[in-house]
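**Entry details**
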Amino acid sequence: MFRKRHQFNQLRPWVRARLRLVFALLLAMVGGYALATSELPSLGENSAINIDRETRLGASVYERLLAAGVVETNPILDRYINDLGHRLLSGLDIRLREYRFFIMRDDSINAFALPGGYIGVNRGLIDLAQSQHQLASVMAHEIAHVRLMHGLDQMQKGGEVNTATLLTMLAGLLLGSVDSQVGSAVLFGGVAIGQQAMVNFTRENEYEADRVGIDLLYEANFDTNGMVEFFTIMSSLSGTSELGNIEYLRTHPVGENRVAEAIARVKNKPGSGDQVDDYALFKDYLQFVSLNYLADQGSTYMRALAAIKARDYQRADSMLEPLYQDNDENIWYSIAYAENLEHLRREEDAERVYRDLLDIFPGDYVLSMSLLRLLNSEGQHQQALDIARRLEFEYPREQQVYFALSEIYRSLQNQPLQWMAEAEFHRLNGNPRQSIRLYDKVLASPNSDPTTVSKAREKRFQLLQ
């Protein structure tokens, strides 16, 4: 055992981190295997894969990524990546899928697309990109793969796909062990059951995804040169010793012809790219959330975040307050300022900041979540509940809403409704067995009212289908 642990410790840090991530993911997925087998559709049929079944397949994998703890769930970061993605989708005349964009807690450089429009971007790729236009170019390329159904076409040729296949595919992604010609890296990079053959994207697939991606960038008024710029960055890294940490180059090779074609196309569709770009603030806050320590360097905002990490809240306040006063509509400054006010036990001032922002951005998800959390901690449970119920109606697939609801119902000592919220949280988090256990507790509780019992029975039945 010691020898095996020693051998593990001799691996490169990024390899060790990937192995730990794989093990966590496999445990989470295997834990729900019996239920998952009935949830996942078979793709080895003669008929074309419909959008509903494609979406259920992507949702099943996404929920297991959540359960493994490898998805970044911070609300403001999640909102940024989804705002960026939905701007790209704004130019589509017909949208058959409800796309979901998310950040992977992985410092390797990669991005990938699941069926149904679930698109993941690794922290490492976000750190490498230098502007929102460059990141948007990667996301547009992945949207194109989903829209053109490249991976699903290949999968239908390869045979049936089930839970065991998905386990193999995801392990291949996270270990970076896929072949250099394989395309979009999670679902489309695995072994097809029955044939044990890798699913390959062709060069034409990649060029086609680039062309559609450039159109998406142009229609959404991004700077289309962002794609060329990111290609140039990736091309410059392709011959370095860092290649082993760049899965994106394995799954999306960047050759001279591909760069040249992109350059030719963006000349005709330049895009203005004149939107306010808070990408640097987004990257700073992502580091703040991800790292245990931040160096006291960089912009005033970054140094303020470093002071919060060091628990020097007074110093952080001295930097954040002027930023907020000069830019009170900037959500990055405002959120950091309000959160630091909470650390200083100035809850009333923090509440004022959140409410002033909600006057500017009515109903905003991130601000609403921050305010209800603060209200609940201050004992204003009913006000917090009113906000949480609105969010539940508007964002029924956001697991953090149900976590907040469970905390509020715990504070209100309403155990049946607390269990109901926790059950929905676990369902969205890829743990249906725990959801069923909680519904059983609701059904067995003498404190459950008839309406709650009826809802619990219905939701339990749905999970077993």
